[in-house]
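Folding Task

Wanted — backbone structure
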Amino acid sequence: MPDQRQPVRARAAWVLLVLGLVAPLALTTLPAEAHAGLVSSDPADGSSLTEAPDEVTVSFNENVARPAFLALTAPDGTAVDLGEPRIVDATVTADVPDLPLRGSYALSYRVVSADGHPVEGTVTFELLTGAEPAAGAAAPVSEESYLHRHRGHIAWGAGAAAVAVGLIAWPLVRRREDAR
């Protein structure tokens, strides 16, 4: 008579193996949910200014680390040379030279959150004084889509779904084999 404990031991070994592989992966994704978020900016997002700012500032809900990058795009699409970014706790500041053009400016930032996750985004402000930008000049459009920004999260989600389907299907396959 065949030993009935053998299939149970084999299943238990597979379950332990899968749990041993999946648990560390699941635990490593938890800290990524706590990365820094933008709290405020100066100039504020969407604001209209009658005078050009001397500096730009972005503030986050937690401390940020080096490196930090700030980039300012003028209404004609050219880059404005900012001073070296200064980081103090959760705030990043850079000096701004004279802004001669009237129109919409885009301040882009990329910082490293306390958990090591890069955080990036853009705020805009309107300068109501200055020279009119040259005709035909347009600010560059970002080519990065939602899928590009979140491809890592999507890949982890697809992997987790594949493991879940495998865990659900495994007992069904084993039952069919045992029934033969």
Observations:
- The chain has a mean pLDDT of 78.
- The longest helix spans residues 151-179.
